[in-house]
Amino acid sequence: MIQRFFHPIGQGAFYSERHTSCNINIVYDCGTTNPSSLAKQRVVNQSFRKDEIIHILFISHFDKDHISLIDTLKTTVQRIERVVIPLLNNEEKIFLSSIYRILGEDSLAELVSNPNEFFERETHIIGVKPSSDTEIGEITPINVSEIQSGTQIILNDLNDWVYIPFNYQYKIRSNEFQNKLKKEGIDVYKLKTDPEYILDAEVKKTIKDIYKDISGNINENSMFLYSGPLSLENSNIHYWRGRCYWRGRCWRDNIFCWHFDYYTHRCNPHRVACLYTGDSDLKKVDVTTIYSKYWDIIGTIQIPHHGSLPSFDVNVLKEKFFLCPISVGKNNSYGHPSQIVILEILSNRCFPILITEDADSTFVEIIEY
């Protein structure tokens, strides 16, 4: 059995998968906008036992709301064996770590600049190279330090269940945060090359003020992750989605009912794979091409960037029924999720699932085989 959890972390991201037959745990992102909240820390603390191991932690990108509870996750479990991250160049490391030091987030600065020190020696760090190619690679050993985007990762005892990270390299980048820094006279080149630049008090104050005004998106790239079978045709294992739980309800036989009696839809129970998107921009990345080999198996798509309209492309949902979890804070100041996004999901006969801070908003998928 595979148990897939979308945890109630509010304006952030924290997702996990348990392969119960072999005691393997996978996590994708672990953070929120207010990590000092005891309630948010307890969500992480209550998700694993102290003697458990996280076999792979995937980090989509280094925005605070996706990484700020990793410290809590580290102390919750026995150990984290492997961490798969988007590979950053030196300029990106200096830029992001400098921003976090200005914000007083020294732990996050260390995670960005020196992940080996942050996780300590027992954790193996794997960087995923950015790529604009859309080819999925071959299965590779996971004892290396760098892999290509599209590399298939299989852990021992996972049969033919595969994880495929893709760190897409945008040909044209538009970053709200950096544009505002330049507008206010901040030398972005120095931020990327000179760690001493942030010692200037006026620079610190300006950057802090700008950060407060944006939606937290200071990192341009976000790593996708496919989680699912290698294939259905050539597999000796028969996968199907058994049950789903959300808002105190249990759905069986893959019949999903919205709040209105007339809205029902039957989902193919064999489309058990999930596409995690982090804060990716679906308008700029054609995920249907990148994961074309697996598209007929994907039944769950995490809607990126908390349901933000600029990051959403309804064409991803065309012609198929998808479960669409959206992590969002109930009282966030960004207007997430966009009502247009919700409307377009519903109009395509797909199912939006809001995961907030409420415990009963936890979304769980049970996959049998």
Task: Walk me through the topology.
Layout: E1 2-6, E2 12-19, E3 24-32, H1 38-45, E4 53-54, E5 56-58, H2 64-67, H3 70-76, E6 79-80, E7 82-86, H4 90-102, H5 106-113, H6 115-119, E8 124-128, E9 146-147, E10 161-167, H7 176-183, H8 188-193, H9 201-213, E11 223-229, E12 240-246, E13 249-252, E14 255-257, E15 264-266, E16 273-276, H10 287-290, E17 298-301, E18 323-327, H11 339-347, E19 351-355, E20 363-368
Parallel strand pairs: 3-5, 4-6, 5-7, 7-8, 8-9, 16-17, 18-19
Antiparallel strand pairs: 1-2, 1-20, 2-3, 10-11, 11-16, 12-13, 12-20, 14-15
Explain how this protein is built.
This protein is an alpha/beta fold and 369 residues long. The chain has a single domain (2-175, 218-368), classed as Metallo-beta-lactamase, Chain A, CATH 3.60.15. It contains eleven helices and 20 strands. Strands 9-8-7-5-3-2-1-20-12-13 form a ten-stranded mixed sheet. Strand 18, helix 11 (339-347) and strand 19 form a beta-alpha-beta unit. Mean pLDDT is 88; it is low at 258-265.
